[in-house]
Amino acid sequence: MKKINIIRSTAIPIPIENIDTDQITPARFLKTTTKEGFGKILFNDWRYDQHGNLKEDFVLNNPKYKGTILVAGKNFGCGSSREHATWSLKDFGFQVVVSSFFADIFKSNALNNFLLPVTVSELFLQDLFYAIEEKSDVKIEVDLPNQHIRVPSHKMMEEFEISTYKKMCLMEGFDDIGYLLSMQKKTKKFELKRTNDYSLIGRI
Amino acid sequence: MPKTLFEKIWDSHVVAQEEGFPTVLYIDAHFIHEVTSPQAFNGLKNRGISVRSPSRVWATADHNVPTINQLLPIKDLLSRKQIETLEENCKDFGIELFGLGHPWQGIVHVIGPELGVTKPGMTIVCGDSHTSTHGAFGAVAFGIGTSEVEQVLASQTILQTKPKTMKIDVNGVLQKGVTAKDVILYIISKLSTSGGTGHFVEFTGSAIRGLSMEGRMTICNMSIEMGARGGMIAPDETTYKYMYGRTFSPKGSDWDKAVSFWKTLPSDKGAKFDRVESFDARDIEPMITYGTNPGMGININGQLPKINNQMSKSSKDQLLKSLDYMGLEEGQKMIGQHVDYVFFGSCTNSRIEDFREAAKILKGRKKAKNIIAILVPGSSQVAKQAKKEGLDKVFEEAGFELRESGCSSCLGFNDDKIPPGKYCVSTSNRNFEGRQGPGAKTMLVSPLTAAATAIKGCVTDPRIFIK
């Protein structure tokens, strides 16, 4: 995966709360066996009408808004655990999602796919929506090493949190499997020491 | 130090905890299905690694299966390929599959408990958010993404940050006609769809204790709908009675040993939770959702909220957007609301008890003419049991279409979609825009309310049929 450092981009705003993963990627598009090509159906039912025509009032169809940063309302990514939602956002070209709150599974999925979820305060989020509304090509800077998000033209800045481990993964291009496999000796030891494991009854 | 049920299970599954790293947590059982596993198997193939512990993986086909003529070749080629890919992957990696045609096939969260795979004290994951269902047995069970499915297949462990703990206490006796589904819809309506995020929830209190295992599963199933990482209920005699004699339950002296271990699991007296919420069972009435997330629910006899100046702009926007999608008016009543479809099914309410309860109302009655009523059992075993008890006759005579098991109209994945603009009263778990099909308008209810609604042809309080 492509390492993340500092991302500077304009942003696409969706000021709606509780955007669930069924909206990001409707279930009927989950019939594939690969991770590719989900960008074209990102927000499918908000983006296209039932005949497949673009809905002009949806922000992704508005040429005024471009960029690799998505700014969305509170509780982004709730609902289904489908990682296809993350693949859709990534495939469309997003590198960062900014919100005041992320659903747990979505956040893990995003981090595992090098899509950076940036949690900001509700106040900062609203200011960010105003800034984009005022000037659609406002530049936003997401600095992972220093863990801050800035809007230089508006003198806005806020720090964000990310676990030390995940920050290292994103900056160095590591994923979790390498680490988990390096722990296999300990896993084996754990299994040998265990009592009260009834989970394999009927299997061995 | 006194520990909670969650902490006891979590702590006993920690393989490693290095400074600056998340916990390496051992996983006892990993359920997989056709939709969220193919990319994980591709990942393993690309890395040239195998499945570490195939005997800890339990596979079935549920999300994408047809519910009519399951044994014929699937017409939709993409669906067929996904099912075939699961079959190939299971074969290649030595995993036993309870696929189409297998007597144990069914919705992953129905078959786990039904077969006795799900047990107290276990860690359980699945690439499906409703994995929280298994917590009803006193297990730490949570949904994961496909990258994590790959991690667990490769290592039988997962990297996790320890969530916070939360206790939700429901005390008192439930009114007649009020079910576990109403309890959880009520709780979510109070705490919102993000009220539990970052937390693992333990449900406690006399109203929870009084529920059957099926009811407890319904509660834990929907804990994800308030954003919780998982839900759980301490095991007790109800749990052991349900589990005894099931295919993968311990037998003989193993059973006694297991029960004495399980009895050590409930939260210790004085154990601290990061957050506690309490509800009175007597305040809960049959519930129905009116909006486009599961937190937008009201008492079935209540009125929809009205836009007011105390609401934040975003709450106002969300309410207006939801009402516009649903074609409902602020302040209106839900009772008597027009309905086109009634869907019985999903991992929330498709177990034998759900059908028994609904059958009590439907027996000797017929659905209204304007309703299309579909019943999809949660597993092939539920379907078999329903036949054995003659419930299939009750439903058929009431004018229901009886299907074969799968996730079906809960998520509009296969052909079982609710048409655009149509209202569906559903026993499932999500009322998101388009969840049951593009433009479908979902109202979530209990099996009793679904049965009463099917008979009357509009949203109906089930208590009129309950003596």
Question: What's the layout of helices and strands?
Answer:
The complex is a heterodimer of chains A (204) and B (467).
Chain A: E1 6-9, E2 11-14, H1 21-24, H2 44-47, E3 69-72, H3 84-92, E4 96-99, H4 104-112, E5 116-119, H5 122-134, E6 140-143, E7 148-151, E8 156-159, H6 164-172, H7 176-182, H8 184-193
Parallel strand pairs in A: 2-3, 3-4, 4-5
Antiparallel strand pairs in A: 1-6, 6-7, 7-8
Chain B: H1 5-11, E1 14-16, E2 23-26, E3 29-32, H2 38-47, E4 57-60, H3 77-93, E5 97-98, H4 108-115, E6 123-126, E7 140-143, H5 146-155, E8 157-160, E9 164-171, H6 180-191, E10 199-204, H7 206-209, H8 213-221, E11 230-232, H9 237-243, H10 252-262, E12 275-280, E13 287-289, E14 297-299, H11 313-326, E15 341-344, H12 352-362, E16 372-375, H13 380-388, H14 391-397, E17 401-402, E18 423-426, E19 441-444, H15 447-456
Parallel strand pairs in B: 3-4, 3-6, 4-5, 6-7, 9-10, 9-12, 10-11, 15-16, 15-18, 16-17, 18-19
Antiparallel strand pairs in B: 1-2, 2-8, 13-14
EC number (chain A): 4.2.1.33
GO molecular function (chain A): 3-isopropylmalate dehydratase activity
Pfam families (chain A): Aconitase_C
Q: If you had to describe this structure to a student in words, what would you say it looks like?
A:
The complex is a heterodimer of chains A (204) and B (467). Chain A has helices spanning 21-24, 44-47, 84-92, 104-112, 122-134, 164-172, 176-182, 184-193, and strands at residues 6-9, 11-14, 69-72, 96-99, 116-119, 140-143, 148-151, 156-159. By secondary structure, chain A is α/β, with parallel strands linked by helices. In chain A, β7 (148-151) and β8 (156-159) form a beta hairpin. In chain A, the strands form two sheets. Chain A has a four-stranded antiparallel sheet with strand order 1-6-7-8, covered by helices on one side. A four-stranded parallel sheet of chain A has the order 2-3-4-5. The model of chain A has no long low-confidence stretch (mean pLDDT 97). With 467 residues, chain B is an alpha/beta fold. Chain B folds into two domains: 5-275, Aconitase, domain 3 (2-Layer Sandwich), CATH 3.30.499; 333-465, Aconitase, domain 3. Chain B contains 15 helices and 19 strands. Chain B has helices spanning 5-11, 38-47, 77-93, 108-115, 146-155, 180-191, 206-209, 213-221, 237-243, 252-262, 313-326, 352-362, 380-388, 391-397, 447-456, and strands spanning 14-16, 23-26, 29-32, 57-60, 97-98, 123-126, 140-143, 157-160, 164-171, 199-204, 230-232, 275-280, 287-289, 297-299, 341-344, 372-375, 401-402, 423-426, 441-444. In chain B, α6 links the parallel β9 (164-171) and β10. Chains A and B meet through α4, α7 and α8 of A and α2, α3, α5, β8 and α10 of B. Chain A: Pathway: Amino-acid biosynthesis; L-leucine biosynthesis; L-leucine from 3-methyl-2-oxobutanoate: step 2/4. Chain A: One of its GO terms (cellular component) is 3-isopropylmalate dehydratase complex.
